[in-house]
Amino acid sequence: MTPTLSNLVRKFTLPSLVAGGLALSACSTPSEPQPDKPSAPEPEQKVVLEEIAFNALPGFAHDSLLTAAPALTRSCERILKRPADAAFSSRSPYGGQVADWHPACESFKTLPENDETALRSWMVEHFTPYSVTYGGQTEGLFTGYFEASLKGSYQKDSSYRYPLYPVPDDLVRVKLEDFDSDLKGKSFIGRFDQNRFKPYFDRKAIDEGAIQKTAKPIIWSNDPVDVFFLHIQGSGQVELPDGSKTRVGFAGSNGLPFYAIGRALIDEGWVSREEASMQSIRNWLRANPDDAQMLMQRNKRFIFFREIEGDGPIGAYSVPLTAERSLAVDPSFIPLGAPLWLDTTFPAGAGERAFSPLQRLMVAQDTGSAIKGAVRGDFYWGSGEAALALAGGMKQKGRYFLLLPKTVSAGQ
After folding, report:
1. Phi, psi of 233, deg, nearest 5
2. How do residues 28-37 score in pLDDT, each as one tens digit?
C-alpha cells in the first residue's frame, strides 16, 4: 500500500523541518505570517467550560474597563470585516460563527466615549463568562513579554554592523495541508539545494554569511544582544541616528527549534535560578561577549523581519497590541479576538504592586511558541525598560475566564 503523506510525516521525526505556527508573538493569518503553532492538545486532557455570573469574576467591580477599550476596538474592527458565515476560529472549537460576534461589535461602536458604566453594561448585555478547566486544573502559568527596543541605522558602518534580515529569497515554506487535509497547520520550512529540499540555514550559518546573497538587511544595529532579544520578542522599535524611530515586526523564521539560553545559563551555573530574568540574561551576555555568541548560536531558530508603518507591534490576530490589555494564548483552545477575564498577580518587578492581584479584562490577540495549553497566557506589558522589568520577572500562577457572545453555547 502506498503510504499517505500524513503517515510519512508521522513516521519520520523531523523536528528541524516541521513548523507549526509561532508567536511571538508573537503565531496565524494570511496577512501576518507567524512563528510556529502550538501542538494539538493531548487526547486525555479535556477542556471544560462552566458558565458563571459576571459578579463572580474576581475583581470585576474594580477594573477600569476603559483602558481595555482600544484592544476591544481593534478586535471588533477586524471581526466586522470578516464574513458573517465564517467560523470565528479556524482552530479553537469555541466561538461559534463570526455572525455571533457582529451584534456585540456593532453595539460597541455606538457606546459613548469615556463612559465606564456604559462599557460595563455592554459587556453584561452581550457576553457570558465561562471558567476554563484543562485536565482538571483551573490554574495555569502566566508569563510576560514586551516590545524590544534597539538602536539602528539603514547604513552599515563600524558601529552599526549587526543585520536585521527580511525573509530570504530562497526560503521555501510548504503547507502540508495542500497535500493532505489531515496535516492542517503543519508545514515544512527549508530550501532547495541541487533539487533536494533541506532544512534552512541555522543561526550560526546565517551569522557566518549564509544568506548574504539572498537577503539584503533592512536595518543594521549596534548591539548583537539587542538583536538577539529582538528575535526572542518578535518585534521592536528601532531608534535611528537622527532620533526618529521605526518599528519592525515578525516576517518569518527559518523553521528550526527554539533553544532557551536562559535555562542553559541556569543549568550550567552561570546564573542562579533565583536571579534568572530577562535583565540578568542580557547583562550576562554583554559581560561575556566571547561566550555570548556561542551561547546565542545554540538557539538555531532565526527570525526574519519587516518594517511596520503605523501602530504596533502587530500580534497574531493582525491588529496592533495594547499594552497591559493584550494576551498571547494557545489558539487551539482560546479563539483569537475573544475577550478574557484574567485573574493572576503582578510580578516581582512591579514595585509596591508586586504579587498583588492582577485582575482585569484582556483580549486574546497574540500567540507564542511556548504558549501551549488551555490555561496559559503571555501578558503584553508594552515597550521600553519598564515593560522589560515587568515582563522579565513575570512567572505567575493564575487563571482566566473566556467571554463568549450569548448566542454561542460553550463547546460550539
Report:
1. -80, -30
2. 333 333 444 4
Give the number of other Cβ atoms within 10 Å of residue 30's Cβ.
6
Tell me how far apart the alpha carbons of residues 23 and 39 are, in angstroms, rounded to a whole number.
13
pLDDT digits (tens, 9 = 90+) for 33-88: 344 444 444 445 689 999 999 999 999 999 999 999 999 999 999 999 999 999 99
Contacts with 370 (C-beta within 8 Å, 6 or more apart), sequence order: 143, 258, 378
Q: Within 10 A of 213 (CB to CB), how many other CB atoms are there?
A: 10
Taking Cα atoms as reference points, which of 389, 321, 398, 386 lies closest to residue 59?
398
Biggest CA-to-CA distance, the chain: 66
**Dist CA 33 CA 27 (whole Å):** 7
Write out the three cell numbers for 267: 543549568
More confident residue, 403 or 41: 403
Cell numbers for 127: 457576553
Contact between residue 3 and residue 10 where contact means Cβ atoms under 8 Å apart? no
Residues linked to residue 249 through DSSP beta bridges, in sequence order = 235, 306
Cell of 135: 485536565
- CA-closest candidate to residue 306, choices 251, 354, 241, 376: 251
Residue pair 357/345 in contact (Cβ under 8 Å)? The answer is yes
- Distance of alpha carbon 350 from alpha carbon 366, whole angstroms: 23
**Placement of cell 452581550 in the chain:** 126
The number of helices, as runs of H, and strands, as runs of E, in the chain is 10, 17
Alpha helices in 110-145 (DSSP H): 116-126
